[in-house]
Amino acid sequence: MNLKKMESMLEAVLFAAGEPCPIDRLSLALEIDELVLTQVLENLKAKYEENESGLRLLKLGTQYQLCTAIEYADEIRKVLEVKKNAPLSQAAFEVLAIIAYNQPVTKAFVEQIRGVDCSGVIATLCQKKLIEEKGRLELPGRPLIYATTPDFMRCFGISELSELPKIPEKDENSNENEKNSDNTENDLKLSVDENENLE
Question: What residue numbers bound the domain in which 179 lies?
């Protein structure tokens, strides 16, 4: 199979899937070596970007997903008459940050840091598919543990959790870190608003 045909086949498969596809599953199903498949996908990803295509190929850890370019989000909403999702609240951003930087964590851990009940916020984040249940701890009561999802990485435009912004160190004699923290939070909010799920 030549390169052009392989790219076209992968494009069709990823379009039809409509969700992130693990590289190992693609390799097994299409009978293509993982290293070769990864290289073809990376070439396809670069082509979309170089040609300023309306499509983008996202890498989400060891998964790939075909999606639309973010700059056409408003036009897509107009055509599909999809209403913009409500932005996340301040509390939701705080809970999401705690989970993202400490995962997997229990609800009790999040509540200990925030000092308030977080049941509603966690339910909202699960509903938006930004976090998900990842099993239970082997402790009395067997509490649920939570972690971020591939949708979380897609919303923030990252392929690995290590790409999350670094947490600034606290400096009691300076307000500079507080300013940086506010700016980082605003950047993250903007990222979520711009990259929100259009489904």
Answer: 90-194
Q: Verify that 109 and 180 share a domain, yes or no.
A: yes
**Domains: count for the chain:** 2
For the stretch 54-74, pLDDT in tens is 999 999 888 999 999 989 988
Predicted confidence at residue 64, as pLDDT, reads 92
Closest CA to 95 of 74, 64, 78, 117: 117
pLDDT in tens, 112-169: 999 999 988 999 899 889 999 999 988 888 899 999 999 898 888 888 888 888 888 7
Flag whether 112 is in a domain. Answer: yes
Distance of alpha carbon 63 from alpha carbon 5, whole angstroms? 21
Same domain (yes/no): 32, 103: no
Is residue 199, in this structure, part of any structural domain at all? Answer: no
With a CB cutoff of 8 Å and minimum separation 6, the contacts of 59 are 41, 42, 45, 159
Q: How far apart are CA 77 and CA 70, in angstroms?
A: 11
- H or E stretch at 35: helix 34-50
CA torsion 94-100-103-107 (nearest 10°) is 30
Helix (H), strand (E) at residue 117: none
